[in-house]
Write a structure and sequence with these properties.
Blueprint lengths: L1 H11 L5 H13 L3 H19 L2 H24 L7 H21 L7 H12 L3 H16 L5 H21 L9
Length: 179
């Protein structure tokens, strides 16, 4: 679901936040493959996850990020969107990525990146993970202003808001968590 959401964003020329957003901005600015960039952007975070969160979480996250990287590179060759409204794409992608993120969280993994750093910093300093992620997203969207037009930037912000609201509402400790 996460890779499908990423494919929708890419087809519409949009971005999201976090590590995927950074990979999108670099990809749009340089023309490099998003999947490869997403994989590379996440590499440093695995060392932190391994040292501070655990082997199971780190391995699960590495597998998830590798899958997202590969599928997001393959999906455009097996499906396409000839015409998709950027705001519809943003909302649909927000829900798809959100479903994928919740699935990963509930099974003890993540899509990598800033979430790992935010989790660690919150544990060490009590600085809320959500605030750190929001600051990182602000930086990503500020950088994206140099590679996206205002409509794509606005649609991307809508998609990120949908994704974050979906995760905030559905990621609760008192709901189903796989063991």
């Amino acid at each position: 679901m996460t890779a499908f959401g990423i494919a929708i964003l890419h087809a519409a020329g949009l971005i999201t936040g976090q590590a995927a957003g950074l990979a999108f901005v670099i990809s749009y600015a340089t023309g490099l493959n998003f999947g490869l960039l997403f994989f590379l952007v996440n590499l440093p975070f695995y060392f932190l996850a391994l040292a501070r969160i655990g082997v199971r979480f780190t391995v699960g996250s590495l597998i998830a990020v590798t899958g997202i990287s590969v599928l997001s590179s393959v999906l455009p060759s097996v499906m396409s969107f000839n015409a998709i409204d950027p705001f519809v794409a943003a909302v649909l992608a927000g829900f798809c990525v959100g479903i994928g993120v919740i699935g990963l969280f509930r099974h003890g993994a993540s899509g990598g990146g800033v979430g790992i750093l935010a989790y660690y910093i919150q544990q060490k300093t009590d600085f809320r993970a959500g605030w750190l992620q929001a600051l990182f997203d602000l930086a990503i969207f500020s950088g994206a202003a140099f590679v996206l037009d205002w409509q794509a930037l606005l649609a991307s912000a809508l998609g990120a808001a949908v994704l974050n609201a979906f995760v905030a509402f559905n990621h609760r400790a008192d709901w189903y968590v796989a063991r």
